[in-house]
# Entry
Amino acid sequence: MSLTNDLEALLQPTLAAQSQPSEVLRSPAPAPRGWESGVRYEPGGTMVVTTPAAEQPPNSEADWRARVEELGLAVPDGWRVRLVEARHDPAAWHRDAQGEDAVTRPVWRCRYVVEPAAPTWLSAGDVDALVRDAMRRRRKPRATAETAERALIVVYADAQAGKVGRDGGTPELVSRVAERFDRLDDHIRDLKAIGQAPDAAYWMDAGDCVENYENTAQQAYTNDLSMTEMIRVHRRITFEGLDRLAGRFGRVVAATCGSNHGRVRRGREAVGPPNDDWGLEVMSQIADAYARNTDAYGHVSFVMPGKWREAVSLDIAGTTVGLAHGHQYPKPEKAGDWWRAQSFGRQAIADAAILITGHYHHFRTQQLGNGRLHIQAPTLDNGSDWYTARSGEVSTAGLLVFSIGPNGWDHLRLL
# Structure
């Protein structure tokens, strides 16, 4: 054999080498954690496929399918392969042949999802059929919750006894409240008629029960009651409201909070701690009176803020409800900011899912955060003419009611 023939023979690869593709000679390092080749089966049959590293990125849906099938995975008819993640590794190392030093080469690591080519709800028919079948379905019987408590919440806010305005004075106030109490009776009957009768009732006094004489100078010339008369009217209205609830429910809770018109003042300045408040004093008087007759009122309890607090929080049928007057923030739009700050400060209403306030004399609700609800109650007073003159807005008087049950709040109405 000539020297030339010997050299050509040396340059030819061996038969063993010729039988293997060049890719097999390259030995990549183990894949990073989470990128090992394989298949993960999800509920519903969807498959998440991680393929071996490749030098080129996938460039078409046909390429995606080919790379998945290289693992021996058969893609079912009516299913598709979708690229969900691709990462470029610029310094993946390889050993091109056994015994050779490792070298680095960039590679692409890809992950795919094998899923139905169309949403499962389309497999049963078109959109028209979907809507038709859904609307014609038979309603499932409503599950009974015999042991679940349902509670009625009655929000009495901003009556400001003694105030005279466009809607009259004390006679008109008392008549208005009495008419709302009659509507409350009707509402309770309505709830019973639809199978939503409450087991317990909560009287939530949101403050400003009296007009007072120390907030503004005009009060001395426009009020139609003396200070003690204001307190007497408020006490008797509250007695009447609680009597109606106590005669209809096996458990009644009465709660109140501090407020700006109810606060004991010298001039316009508040004196004493936050609980130095006429609304709290009236509720305390009623609690003392009920304690004298436990046969009639032993099922009525009372909740009031502590000496240095202005708000309270109650567990009502499994939902935490906060009660505050609302004078703590400068305008109604700021209620959410104040509530968030109270939560951060771990105050009384920090964990409340529902916050009830008054003060701003009109009804407003707002959903906040994750499932929290702010309810601003309407007023029961004779009108805020100064605010109407400034803004043109006229508030509608009303008694706010709603219910809380195992599925949260419902049946919110203005009576």
Remarks:
- Residues 170-193 form the longest helix (24 residues).
- The longest strand covers residues 79-95.
- Residues 13-25 have pLDDT under 50 and may be disordered.
